[in-house]
Amino acid sequence: MEQNVQYDLKSLTLQELEEVIEELGEKKFRAKQIYGWIHQKLIQDLDEMVNVPKKLREQLKEKLGFSPIKELERLVSNIDGTSKFIFALQDGSVIESVLMKYKHGNSVCVSSQVGCRMGCRFCASTLDGLSRNLLPSEILDQIYYIQRATKERVSNIVLMGTGEPFDNYENVMRFLDLVTNENGLNLSQRNITISTCGLVPKIKQFADRKMQCNLAISLHSPTDEMRKELMPIAKRYTIDEILEACQYFFEQTGRRITFEYSLVAGVNDKPEHAKILTKRIKNLNCHVNLIPVNPIKERDYKQSNVDSIMEFKAMLERNHINATVRREMGRDIQAACGQLRRKYTKTN
């Protein structure tokens, strides 16, 4: 367990839970029982563990705590059925999650922090800064709650909600280990995507774990100068440094990189931008996800028109770079990162 971090019951690995159970004078098999109740049956109250002694349940509540998140609000899109959840944490913090339903299964976009300190100018998540990191249990709970509420299995997870996952590295790694554990949800690593604005040392550190998760880089610009205007992190790490880290990730994992590129009208959506981007990434095993930027009232960015988007895509494809245009999900319910959470916290 990491030093100076106090984890709750749901954040413990099975081995750590076994140690706790033995410290309490109980037999080791109880740990697997409890772990199954939490991570397979997705209980919201320890008293649901009917085959676990009441005394042990009380000891666990006292020693570690068990506080599931609470749903404050849920909006469902009339356009595509996308659901946006607003959750309250134990300390009153508010986070958001999005459930997107596809033919291939249910995908949940989760938050990894309360707020964000990265400052990307087209993202509502950063407008009020970072409050705190989420515990592994608080990331898990977003998935567990949605799966329990819908009675449908979550098959894909995207860490692309509020927060920069690699800015909460240790807790996110523990979350990944828990959600892919065979004694829990047992989700395939290949069905998990982590999105980062480009924290180079953490990309390399994650690559060394050799997990089979997908890595998405929020690039959004073909040049360092333009990227500095859009994303403050560009003042710390250049695009060349990010691309070198991406190549390292591919070498360690064999996983193709996805570059997220939000198209802003008149800013980064011109043919010359596509040409520069092509030159920079053509030697990488990658895919470009073109995203019509979500307008937010605090910024004056406008979405590129369809012709500009398709011309940009075509130029990439002519140069043998795989590119897709992200399908907009839940636009009528403010499903862009941070939008609904910010509206909720400002009005409640």
Automatic annotation (TrEMBL):
<dbReference type="GO" id="GO:0002935">
    <property type="term" value="F:tRNA (adenine(37)-C2)-methyltransferase activity"/>
</dbReference>
<dbReference type="GO" id="GO:0070475">
    <property type="term" value="P:rRNA base methylation"/>
</dbReference>
<keyword id="KW-0408">Iron</keyword>
<dbReference type="InterPro" id="IPR027492">
    <property type="entry name" value="RNA_MTrfase_RlmN"/>
</dbReference>
<keyword id="KW-0698">rRNA processing</keyword>
<dbReference type="InterPro" id="IPR004383">
    <property type="entry name" value="rRNA_lsu_MTrfase_RlmN/Cfr"/>
</dbReference>
<comment type="function">
    <text>Specifically methylates position 2 of adenine 2503 in 23S rRNA and position 2 of adenine 37 in tRNAs.</text>
</comment>
<feature type="binding site">
    <location>
        <position position="116"/>
    </location>
    <ligand>
        <name>[4Fe-4S] cluster</name>
    </ligand>
</feature>
<comment type="similarity">
    <text>Belongs to the radical SAM superfamily. RlmN family.</text>
</comment>
<keyword id="KW-1015">Disulfide bond</keyword>
<dbReference type="Pfam" id="PF04055">
    <property type="entry name" value="Radical_SAM"/>
</dbReference>
<keyword id="KW-0963">Cytoplasm</keyword>
<feature type="binding site">
    <location>
        <position position="294"/>
    </location>
    <ligand>
        <name>S-adenosyl-L-methionine</name>
    </ligand>
</feature>
<protein>
    <recommendedName>
        <fullName>Probable dual-specificity RNA methyltransferase RlmN</fullName>
        <ecNumber>2.1.1.192</ecNumber>
    </recommendedName>
</protein>
<dbReference type="GO" id="GO:0051539">
    <property type="term" value="F:4 iron, 4 sulfur cluster binding"/>
</dbReference>
<feature type="binding site">
    <location>
        <position position="123"/>
    </location>
    <ligand>
        <name>[4Fe-4S] cluster</name>
    </ligand>
</feature>
<feature type="active site" description="Proton acceptor">
    <location>
        <position position="96"/>
    </location>
</feature>
<dbReference type="GO" id="GO:0070040">
    <property type="term" value="F:rRNA (adenine(2503)-C2-)-methyltransferase activity"/>
</dbReference>
<feature type="binding site">
    <location>
        <position position="120"/>
    </location>
    <ligand>
        <name>[4Fe-4S] cluster</name>
    </ligand>
</feature>
<feature type="active site" description="S-methylcysteine intermediate">
    <location>
        <position position="337"/>
    </location>
</feature>
<dbReference type="GO" id="GO:0000049">
    <property type="term" value="F:tRNA binding"/>
</dbReference>
<dbReference type="InterPro" id="IPR058240">
    <property type="entry name" value="rSAM_sf"/>
</dbReference>
<feature type="binding site">
    <location>
        <begin position="218"/>
        <end position="220"/>
    </location>
    <ligand>
        <name>S-adenosyl-L-methionine</name>
    </ligand>
</feature>
<dbReference type="GO" id="GO:0019843">
    <property type="term" value="F:rRNA binding"/>
</dbReference>
<dbReference type="GO" id="GO:0046872">
    <property type="term" value="F:metal ion binding"/>
</dbReference>
<dbReference type="Pfam" id="PF21016">
    <property type="entry name" value="RlmN_N"/>
</dbReference>
<keyword id="KW-0819">tRNA processing</keyword>
<keyword id="KW-0175">Coiled coil</keyword>
<keyword id="KW-0004">4Fe-4S</keyword>
<keyword id="KW-0808">Transferase</keyword>
<keyword id="KW-0949">S-adenosyl-L-methionine</keyword>
<keyword id="KW-0489">Methyltransferase</keyword>
<dbReference type="GO" id="GO:0005737">
    <property type="term" value="C:cytoplasm"/>
</dbReference>
<dbReference type="InterPro" id="IPR040072">
    <property type="entry name" value="Methyltransferase_A"/>
</dbReference>
<dbReference type="InterPro" id="IPR048641">
    <property type="entry name" value="RlmN_N"/>
</dbReference>
<dbReference type="InterPro" id="IPR006638">
    <property type="entry name" value="Elp3/MiaA/NifB-like_rSAM"/>
</dbReference>
<feature type="binding site">
    <location>
        <begin position="163"/>
        <end position="164"/>
    </location>
    <ligand>
        <name>S-adenosyl-L-methionine</name>
    </ligand>
</feature>
<keyword id="KW-0479">Metal-binding</keyword>
<dbReference type="InterPro" id="IPR007197">
    <property type="entry name" value="rSAM"/>
</dbReference>
<feature type="coiled-coil region">
    <location>
        <begin position="7"/>
        <end position="34"/>
    </location>
</feature>
<dbReference type="InterPro" id="IPR013785">
    <property type="entry name" value="Aldolase_TIM"/>
</dbReference>
<feature type="domain" description="Radical SAM core">
    <location>
        <begin position="102"/>
        <end position="332"/>
    </location>
</feature>
